[in-house]
Amino acid sequence: MHFQNVVYEIKIPSSVQSIGNGAFYGCWHFSYNIIPTSITSIGDDVFRDCQDIFLNSIPSTITSIGNSSFRGCNNLFKISIPNSVTSIGNDTFRDCRNLNEIIIPTS
User: Fold this and answer.
1) Would you call 80 helix, strand, or coil by DSSP?
2) pTM over 0.90
3) Tally of CB atoms within 10 A around 13
């Protein structure tokens, strides 16, 4: 039997600079998610299969987004990638069934 992890709120302290691989993999229920501006990188599979994550934009301090980091996040409808991001990993938004728009800057 498989039980889904339940997380209602994430508050990442401003002292944290990166979110490691798989940190919140499979956590279904976020009441809200705030990625502080101290974060510069999001690792692989960080928010993978987080069904109820709500996020409209990524902070302008982020420079890299890992493989499959938002894969299977069905409540992502629109996401804005800042100019600061220089790399987006493979399958980052794969299986995000409701994602209608990704804004990627020319940089």
Assistant:
1) strand
2) no
3) 7
